[in-house]
Amino acid sequence: MLDGLTLDQMRVFVAVANSGSFRAGAGKVARVQSAVSHAIANLEAELGIALFDRSGHRPVLTPEGRALLANARDILLRVDAMRARARGLGEGVEPELSLVIDTLFPLEQVGAALTEMRAEYPSVAIRLSIEPLGGPVAGLLEQRCQLAVTVGEDFRDPRLELRALSAVPVVTVVAAGHPLARQAEGRTLAISDLADHLQIVLTDPTPLSEGRDFGVISPQTCRVNTQETKLALIRAGLGWGRLPLWEVERHLAEKQLVRLASHALGRSGLLVSESYLAHRIDAPLGPAARAFAQSLMQLSGPRSP
């Protein structure tokens, strides 16, 4: 029987495993080292297995300890989520709603959802940041925002709950007067064609993508920090790049920009990514945040490329 297991024991177990020593783990849970050792020993006795090999200078997780660590983390996350939900149910309206939105997501939908939220909660102030790549996820992990919208599958964290919103089509474009536009007439471009020209690329303001590039094909790059800058440089003819369809539809219709087709860029130069509404499972959402989330879920829908 495992009735003697406690959440405190599990928190101590996870703290020691994360920090790599009983002393460091004791510091994380604000206990003396002897109390931490005692808690781990009691947990091992309840489970009937050794969680750590103590024969070396530092305790090392046993194979059984590694297997059960994932279970302990999952249990603690669920308990934290339950506590957060209970706190949220007992709290009043929050004074401010803070959001970080992926630069690929249509801002009009966010604006419409905020308008509906403000109609119900007019006293709530709004703090909105538009960030690319890992920015929305980092905003939640760093507790800079209550809700975030992220696009794509590259950034995930078990501390976050995600709900799918809608598809976001991203197309590859170039200015109508650019040499690639003439090359692309009636043909599908090869990677070598694209690599011969400058690619305009967004940089990640966070360390979450350190050492990785996303969708970079050309060895010639111009890296910028905002989507508006990227669009402006592409329209000026400096190079080619990928942009959300909602942002370039008018420029394509007015023939200022041209779509590029290449098998390396998705069919017809189009890539469809899923967008997600995200929040920390250990942080309660107030009434205004819940109202905004509900409105955005209802307003967001699949868009045809």
Automatic annotation (TrEMBL):
Belongs to the LysR transcriptional regulatory family. Gene3D superfamilies: 3.40.190.290, Winged helix-like DNA-binding domain superfamily/Winged helix DNA-binding domain. One of its GO terms (molecular function) is transcription cis-regulatory region binding. It comes from the Bacteria. This is DNA-binding transcriptional LysR family regulator. Residues 5-62 form the HTH lysR-type domain. Keywords: DNA-binding, Transcription, Transcription regulation. It comes from Dongia mobilis. Pfam families: HTH_1, LysR_substrate.
